[in-house]
Amino acid sequence: MARDKVLVSACLLGMNCRYDGRNKKNEKLLQMLRDKEIIPVCPEVEGGLPTPREPATREADRVITNFTRRDVTPFFRVGALKTFQKAKRFGIKKAFLKSKSPSCGENGITTELLQREGLDIEWF
User: Fold this and answer.
1) Do residues 43 and 49 lie in contact, with contact meaning Cβ atoms separated by under 8 Å?
2) How many CA atoms lie within 13 A of 74 on its CB side?
3) Of 7, 29, 73, 117, which cross-links 95 as Cys (Cβ 3.0–4.6 Å)?
4) How high is the pLDDT of residue 24?
């Protein structure tokens, strides 16, 4: 029998893709998902941003870097679209995403698109 597929923020899986070059590995989440097929995603990297990178914050419909005030919204939008396309390709209905992220967080660019397309999301 095929296992359910779920999207998971790559940083929660222990991949060093966060803005600071680190991860937020979550052992509790990994245990919770041990019977699922995990599809890792990092919308910021998939959108073309490097690791490490300047931290950024969502400001209304834009994403602006914290120090140089550069508008990086296009990278976030591309990453969100690629993440959604991956979910669609694998028939995924559930995502486990990194909270407080300008892409994957509760008010993130990727979250916005995934929710609009009907995915159920939990944050860690």
Assistant:
1) no
2) 3
3) 7
4) 98
Q: Which of 93, 106, 101 is nearest to 36 (CA)?
A: 93
The pTM (predicted TM-score) of the whole model is 0.95
Domain range spanning residue 114? 5-123
Q: How many domains, the chain?
A: 1
Angle between helices 73-90 and 109-116 (to 10 degrees): 40
DSSP the chain: -PPPEEEEEGGGGT-S-STTS-----HHHHHHTTTSEEEEE-HHHHTT--SS---EEEETTEEEETTT--B-HHHHHHHHHHHHHHHHHHT--EEEE-TT-TTTSTT-HHHHHHHHTT-EEEE-
